[in-house]
Design a protein that fits this description.
Blueprint (H helix, E strand, L loop, with lengths): L1 H46 L2 E7 L10 H5 L2 E6 L5 E2 L4 E3 L5 E3 L4 E2 L4 E5 L9 E3 L11 E7 L5 E8 L5 E3 L1
Length: 168
Amino acid sequence: MRRTRTLTAAALAVAAGVVLLPTQAQAQAQVQAQVKAQARTHVLAAAGSVHLYKIYYDSPGTDKRSNASLNAEYVQIRNTTSKAVSLKGWTLVDASNHRYVFGTYSLGKGKTVTVRTGKGKDTAANRYQNRAAYVWNNDKDTATLKKANGTKADTCSYNSTKVDYKMC
């Protein structure tokens, strides 16, 4: 009787070992896949991007369409790459298809540009859409940044009247 129990226990142990080996191999493969995915993410993060950073969609005070109020409505675009990026021909568009097209303009590495709705003189830090009406809805909208060739670089949506801006 004792010998049968020992053989049964040994057989169970061998069977358990056979079952555990594929499980260990699978776990090791999963860990390797996670390490590779993290490495890819790190490379992408190191490369950076040009992306939407902030949408200030509800300018302070009453919406009276004054130029100061229009310019308090804006979208910020950030360059996190390691070099300047030409935005010539890039577009910023909302859900209603209000479109701003960048002329000759280069966004420096690590820099942010603010695209304001109202009128003003373009600088390296501020670009102006030269509009007399608001673009960004105070409750919900979607900003899309497209490259000159039309491919989508980034998109950012908001759906709130509780705050005046959205960090993308």
